[in-house]
């Protein structure tokens, strides 16, 4: 029987050990590495790369974004499944743009984790309420874009302020922090957001981020 090898990269030692113990209870999975952060993971990376890396986002020394970037460049066959407390839309989108195959919250039921591992192993992606089929489709389309999409954006006539807001909406900043950076009130930010929702026929911040990726307003 082939075992799927798992690496756990998380700076919360008790949680990581509990996860390792849970995963080891299933004969189809094998824990091959535990690391406190990305730098620790790179230093310990085995000669045979793990099939799946369970990766946290917020870690000291080398965070999840940097680690996912390194994995994408150096271990292209390894699939990343994010397990984090961070629930911001922009963080989820950013990790998916860096190649993550799914995104799971740390307070999820353990059986959901097993389901997620099975899905990443068998189908390549774990789709849940945080990661939709549509999101994966948009990200894949954006990755395959050959540069024509920028014209579509210009045709919609976004103002400079709307474009700036859209770029900032693709970061981890809250709407309040975006207001501070743009030197406007939170109410003005709400009007930018609602105006874009109406203009672009979009209903959520994730939708705005996907639109920005697809149309080359931010890079993948």
Shape: elongated
- Biggest sheet details: 5 strands, parallel
Structural class based on helices, strands and sheet pairing:
alpha/beta
CATH fold assignment of the largest domain:
Rossmann fold
For the record, the count of structural domains works out to 2
Beta-strand share of residues: 5-15%
- Average pLDDT confidence is 87
* Helical percentage: 40-55%
In terms of per-residue confidence, which ranges show pLDDT below 50 for 5 or more consecutive residues? 146-155
Number of H/I helices: 11
Identify the CATH architecture of the largest domain.
3-Layer(aba) Sandwich
Query: CATH first level of the largest domain: which class?
Result: Alpha Beta
Gyration radius, rounded: 19 Å
> How far do the termini sit from each other?
38 Å
Order of helices and strands: EHEHEHEHEHHHHHHH
Annotation, overall tally of beta strands: 5
Summary keywords:
220 residues, alpha/beta, Arc Repressor Mutant, subunit A, 2 domains, five-stranded parallel beta sheet, DNA-binding, phosphoprotein, WalR-like, Two component transcriptional regulator, LuxR family
């Amino acid at each position: 029987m082939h075992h799927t090898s798992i690496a756990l990269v998380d700076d919360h030692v008790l949680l990581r050990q509990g996860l390792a113990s849970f995963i080891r209870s299933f004969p189809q999975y094998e824990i091959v590495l535990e690391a406190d952060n990305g730098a620790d993971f790179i230093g310990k990376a085995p000669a045979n790369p793990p099939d799946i890396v369970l990766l946290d986002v917020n870690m000291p020394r080398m965070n999840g974004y940097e680690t996912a970037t390194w994995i994408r460049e150096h271990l292209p066959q390894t699939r990343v499944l994010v397990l984090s407390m961070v629930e911001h839309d922009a963080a989820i989108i950013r990790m998916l743009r860096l190649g993550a195959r799914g995104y799971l919250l740390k307070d999820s039921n353990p059986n959901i984790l097993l389901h997620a591992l099975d899905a990443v192993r068998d189908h390549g992606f774990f789709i849940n309420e945080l990661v939709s089929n549509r999101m994966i489709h948009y990200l894949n389309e954006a990755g395959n874009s050959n540069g024509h999409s920028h014209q579509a954006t210009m045709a919609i006539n976004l103002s400079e302020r709307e474009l700036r807001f859209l770029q900032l909406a693709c970061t981890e900043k809250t709407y309040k922090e975006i207001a501070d950076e743009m030197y406007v009130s939170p109410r003005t930010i709400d009007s930018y957001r609602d105006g874009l929702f109406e203009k672009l026929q979009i209903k959520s911040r994730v939708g705005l981020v996907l639109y920005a990726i697809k149309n080359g307003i931010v890079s993948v």
